[in-house]
Amino acid sequence: MIHEVDDGLRRLLGESGLQASGVDVVFDAPTRDWAARRSAPTVCVFLYDIREDAVRRGSGSGEVYDEDGHLVARRTPPRWFELTYLVTAWASRPQDEHRLLSQVLATLVATETLPARLLTGTLAELGLTVGLDTAATGSDAPAASDVWSAMGGDLKASLSLRVRAPLAGVTKAAAPPVTEGLVVRATARGDDTEAGRRLRYTQTSDPGPDGGYAGPRERPPAPARRRRRGDRQP
């Protein structure tokens, strides 16, 4: 899921005009060594904090059916996570860095959710909203100054970007529906011969929870003939 969020952010920033301007969008840690090797204008989107949104955690499981309406799997509900990014701009002059950062800020503030056309993989399959919160306050993530200190770099103007994205639940395959009848055999004592019959499963017009098959059915025995007065005793 994390790499799919990265891909969506890269596409979003690329469509804002950065790609046409020759600006690179990377997800590296902006350490001093990395900054020394950089040679082109760059927007760095560094992921530094991942936390689960426990309030949105669901329970139970959902059922997955195939095209014929048969139960094929059970899936636990998705779990939601908050991904916090440190967004910085790198260029040869501070004025150029501020221009890039301003362009990124305008794009992110105008986008509350990642458009569905930019989602890939499991994010596209789930069809759930991936929210964006730019320069938000009240987050439990580490402060930007603490992040720069941990990386050994110099403090730099940056944006905090928080993404709320779902992680797909665990899918477990279900047993296939029963399509064959059960064979019942009975053997008399002292007799080597066996008498067997098959209980057949019949398709019903009202499918049941087992995939549309009713239980085993037998023809009911014929009712006993009622004896009338005047009948001879055998």
TrEMBL record:
It comes from the Bacteria. InterPro entries: Pvc16_N (IPR025351). This is DUF4255 domain-containing protein. Residues 224-234 have a biased composition (Basic residues). Residues 4-179 form the Pvc16 N-terminal domain. It comes from Streptomyces beihaiensis. Residues 185-234 are annotated as: Disordered. Residues 188-197 have a biased composition (Basic and acidic residues).
